[in-house]
Specification:
The structure holds 2 protein chains of 2 kinds. In chain A, the strands form 4 sheets. Chain A has a 5-stranded mixed beta sheet with strand order 3-2-1-4-5. A 5-stranded parallel beta sheet of chain A has the order 7-6-8-12-15, with helices on both faces. A 3-stranded antiparallel beta sheet of chain A has the order 9-10-11. Chain A is α/β, with parallel strands linked by helices. Chain A folds into 3 domains: about 80 residues, Nucleotidyltransferase, domain 5 (2-Layer Sandwich), CATH 3.30.420; about 70 residues, no CATH class; about 200 residues, no CATH class. The longest helix of chain A has 16 residues. In chain A, β2 and β3 form a beta hairpin. In chain A, α1 crosses α3. Chain A has 17 helices and 15 strands. By secondary structure, chain B is mostly helical. Chain B folds into 2 domains: about 150 residues, Alpha Horseshoe (Serine Threonine Protein Phosphatase 5, Tetratricopeptide repeat), CATH 1.25.40.10; about 90 residues, no CATH class. Chain B contains 12 helices and no strands. Classes of the chains: A alpha/beta, B mainly alpha. At the A-B interface, β1, β2, β3, α9 and α16 of A face α6, α7, α8, α11 and α12 of B.
Chain lengths: ~375, ~250
């Protein structure tokens, strides 16, 4: 039996506390990390700037400009102009665009204090329940040691809360005990702006291969591109909605948008850009058009609420698919919420906009390494 | 600043006398709260506590749940600052109980979320008290109770595997849950401006919820169904349930 530990963080207005509960220990433990919420919020802001660049509109509001300046001053300090454009593979080659997350890694010693490390050192799997700004930070990439990140040392399961974990487990328990994923749906579509649509539309090859290698009778449904080709159905909203509820694994390879733009946005307008049955979506349109205008090309969080899924795992290789607006009652508003409600107990997502090459590589390696034992049927994991 | 606060307090006290003589309870509560706030700002916690305790009695007499909740919360905060942990915890817990009672009557997810924001500091205080009192398990329970309550409530109405139940009971629960689900969908399609439609949905929701509670009471009495009912009700996990979820 793997050894488990629950790390439950709570960010108050003064400090961040972490509770440790191990089923093999009689009592839980508590640790004060002495990390103030403002430090975490600055990290969240800086990480968004590093991944997404500074939006022009942010500079026009005075308090926003102050907060950006504060975030840019975190180690390594950078000038604002170096972060005015989005991260891209080409830019990374230039020294002025060199990215380092030392501001985040420097919190490792405090967010994982020495006493806590000693208590979890022999665990195999850590179930982490973040709170507040920690939901938007990659706890898995905290340093366990100079050589290892937390994710390299432990299996990590990221949960909304222990309460939500129980629902995910209940959904898993409701399946037959010998249930193994036997079917998968792959929806893959590039955008009109993509020069290499195959980087999306050939996605899922590994997943299909893994399924068929394990059992040639596995059902693999591929919804690819904008319109029907050679008997293949397109990755259109209608086809996706029809097929999603009938598969054990659901995989998307497409662009994603986070609906919370500016202060007036709605995180439930976040969505996955798909085909309308005849044409590809446009990333540029998604940035400028209204949700109503984008409706034929966007499967929104609001729409996912009305689906019924029986999938064991949903993987979204789409930008910002795991990004959420964290409200004060610690409610995460975005795609995660709607997929959990629709019935997905485990999710693999991205907290930011991601590079299509590296995300594909990461996902393929994860599938080869992890399948078929995980996804650990413990709960929902957000990477 | 201190002089101004003292002046405010004197005027509020004069107003208090008038209210008492006239029997105006609601304004008396407001003025007492003002006196309490002024004393707190002047760093006189003992006297502030006395003022808020008096205000609490008035809130109870008025039957105002929100006024009682605020009074309990402030009393908890004052006691915490004074280092009186046991009464601080008691006051905070009572504020939380009232908060829960109000929250349970909210249909819309967004209202539940907005409401939850008010309890955020309360949970922070309770956790700090529990840690001071070396009651770590209770602290952990509060930490998890503070998270994603509206989502848990929402998941409670979603599709969950039902344990073996008598057919009639299972059918009745399924039917009620479906109707609750329809109301949630309809509510999402309305706006703040459609007050009449929302009122009607709210009334339907309250009735359905009451019927569901009765059904869940019946289900809860069937051996092995307690956890299922907890999930349906969105009850936050206690230490045993947390431990069980890790095994």
């Amino acid at each position: 039996m793997p050894k488990l530990g629950l790390l439950s963080y709570f960010v108050s207005n003064k400090t961040t506390r972490v509770f440790l509960l191990r089923p093999d220990q009689p009592k839980p433990l508590a640790f004060d990390t002495h990390v103030a919420p403002q430090e975490l919020q600055a990290c969240v802001r800086r990480m968004l700037i590093d991944f997404h660049g500074i939006e022009d509109s942010n500079w026009t509001e005075h308090d926003e400009a102050d907060l950006i300046t504060e975030a840019l001053a975190l180690d390594p300090r950078v000038n604002g102009f170096k972060r005015t454009q989005r991260i891209s593979r080409e830019r990374l080659k230039r020294p002025e665009f060199f990215y380092q997350f030392s501001y985040w890694e420097s919190l490792s010693e405090r967010l994982l204090p020495a006493d806590l490390r000693a208590e979890v050192a022999d665990c195999d799997l850590l179930c982490i329940s973040p709170h507040g700004p920690l939901h938007s930070l990659p706890l898995s990439s905290l340093r366990w040691s100079k050589q290892e990140y937390l994710i390299q040392r432990f299996g990590i399961c990221d949960i909304n809360s222990a309460g939500v974990l129980r629902y995910c487990q209940a959904k898993n328990r409701a399946r037959p005990s010998r249930h193994r994923p036997a079917s998968c749906m792959i929806a893959a579509v590039a955008a009109t702006e993509d020069p290499d649509p195959e980087s999306f539309e050939e996605d899922g090859d590994t997943l299909a291969m893994v399924f068929r290698e394990r059992d040639p009778r596995s059902k693999v449904t591929r919804l690819v591109g904008a319109r029907p080709v050679d008997g293949h159905q397109p990755a259109s909203k209608d086809e996706i909605r029809k097929a999603m509820g009938e598969h054990d694994v659901v995989h998307f390879a497409c662009h994603g948008v986070f609906g919370m733009r500016g202060k007036r946005g709605d995180p439930l307008n976040s969505g996955l850009l798909v085909s309308d049955g005849t044409s590809k979506p446009s990333v540029d349109d998604a940035r400028h058009l209204s949700p109503e205008e984008m409706a034929p090309h966007c499967l929104t969080a609001r729409e996912v609420f009305n689906l019924r899924l029986t999938a064991d795992l949903v993987t979204l290789r789409a930008c910002s698919s795991g990004r959420a607006q964290v409200r004060l009652g610690d409610e995460l508003m975005g795609l995660v919420r709607s997929f959990l409600y629709a019935g997905a107990p485990s999710l693999l997502l991205s907290l930011w906009d991601v590079d299509k090459v590296s995300s594909q590589r990461l996902l393929n390696e994860w599938l080869i390494l992890a399948w078929p034992s995980p996804p650990a049927r413990l709960g929902n994991c957000c990477c | 600043m201190k002089r101004l606060l003292a002046e405010c307090e004197a005027k509020a006290r004069a107003g208090l006398e008038l209210c008492r003589r006239a029997g105006f309870t609601a304004p008396e509560y407001d003025l007492l709260s003002g006196v309490g706030a002024s004393l707190l700002l002047r760093k006189r916690p003992q006297q502030a506590r006395a003022a808020y305790e008096e205000a609490l009695v008035l809130a109870e007499r008025l039957g105002s749940v929100s006024k009682q909740q605020i009074s309990f919360e402030l009393l908890g905060l004052i006691c915490l600052d004074m280092g009186a942990l046991a009464p601080a915890r008691d006051y905070c817990k009572r504020a939380l109980e009232l908060f829960e009672r109000c929250r349970d009557g909210l249909t819309a997810e967004e209202h539940q979320i907005a409401f939850a924001q008010q309890a955020a500091s309360l949970y922070g205080n309770l956790i700090a008290i529990c840690i001071e009192q070396q009651e770590i398990a209770a602290g952990l329970e509060f930490a998890e109770e503070a998270k994603s309550r509206a989502l848990s409530g929402l998941l409670g109405t979603s599709h969950l595997g039902r344990p073996p139940l008598p057919d009639a009971l299972a059918r009745r629960e399924a039917e009620l849950l479906e109707r609750v689900g329809d109301i949630v969908i309809e509510w999402r399609q309305t706006t703040e401006k459609q007050a009449a439609a929302r009122d009607s949905l709210w009334n339907q929701w309250i009735k359905l919820r009451q019927e569901l509670e009765k059904v869940w009471d019946q289900i809860g009495r069937i051996p092995g169904c307690a956890e299922y009912v907890e999930l349906r009700r969105g009850t936050p996990p206690d230490l045993d349930a947390l431990r069980a979820s890790l095994v």
